[in-house]
Amino acid sequence: MAIIKCPECGHQISDKAETCPACGVKIKDNIVRCPHCGNVYLKDQTICPSCHMSPNASVAPAQQQNQQNSQAQQQNIQPRQQNVMAQQQPTNAFGNNEAEQPVKKSNKNVVIAIIIALAVIVGGGLWYASSANALHGDEQTAYINAMNSSDPAVLQDYLDSFKDAPQEHIDSIQAHLNILKANDTEWTNALLSNSKSALQQYLDNHPNTLHKAEALHKIDSIDWAACKRQNTPEAYQTYLSDHSDGEHVVEAQENLDKLDATTVSGEDKQVVSSAFQQFFRSINNNDEMGITSAVSSELQFLTNPNATKQDVITFLHKLYKDDVRSLTWRPNGDYKIQKKDLGDGTYEYDVEFTVDESVSNIDSSKDKFNQYRVKGKIDSDGKISKLQLMKIG
Asked: 66 CB contacts (<8 Å, ≥6 apart)?
């Protein structure tokens, strides 16, 4: 793996990345490295945008020109050196060189060999210097990019690619990598803990972490699971308050609405208890108006499925026999209430509870105490629409 510049936006990325995180262009299996200048570009480009050469061209135009110039220079050197050597050779009376032909050929070969050796030495030195400068420039760029990165893979790639980098660079990269690895270990521990408090602590310690979105998602999931286990209006209200833009807001609100339609609240209990307390208090006071105002116009009363308010008054009179001094009916408050949604925000309630009756007679020896189980219903107007008494014991 190597660090390259994105051909689309120039962002520093790994050449193994699926896409560029900055611009989204596909990277993996979609890039070409120019064999002439080393530039990286996208496969759909037919020529390198840097040197304008096709990847299939064998030698770049500049290289061809350099080779042609080198050959021309070599051809010019040989005739000049031959003239010099001819002028330096002594001649005989007939104007011919005194040295024999084999000697002339040997001297010529020596000169050519020396020139070639010098060219190789000079060229090699220039190439080494150029390569060293290029490597140094690549290392410096890679170092800066790695120090600015929060991806451990980028830093490790630098250490693997530039083993001969300055020691201070290697030390800085290694220290930076150790910090990132420590953070990753802390994140792994928080994630595996499946604890909201541990995840929140990690976010508090690392507000700019790359794992922020994942941590928030995990916290949201933990709170939602707890909310569903409790399945109470209070639990759903808490989730909606803590996660106003959470992943389960819609479902939480729907469940809350359903529970509101069936869950008996304190207000519901007050409606139920008020109606029955008024009923039994009116019996204690022998109050016809009070007892009839507590019931609906038509109701199931005792054994009569189609009773009226007059039937309730008749029941009250039967309770007060001639020898009865007073009556005391007291609901025990052990209400068992089932709430039914009638729509349009209206409800009715099926109720079951116990009530004690104390009868005080003129002849105190006839005083008595009774307990009854009451089954009743409260309609949407808060009136008693059903009341049945069953004596206990």
From this structure: none
- Both tokens of residue 139? 């290392």
pTM: 0.43
pLDDT tens string for the chain (393 positions)? 678 888 888 878 788 778 887 788 888 888 888 888 888 888 888 888 888 888 776 544 445 554 455 454 545 545 554 544 444 455 554 455 554 455 455 566 766 777 776 766 656 655 554 544 444 558 888 888 888 887 777 888 888 999 888 988 898 888 877 777 666 788 888 888 889 999 999 999 989 888 899 999 999 999 999 999 999 889 999 999 999 999 999 999 999 988 888 888 899 999 999 999 999 999 999 999 999 999 999 999 999 999 999 999 999 999 998 899 999 999 999 999 999 988 888 999 999 999 999 999 999 888 999 999 999 999 999 999 999 999 996
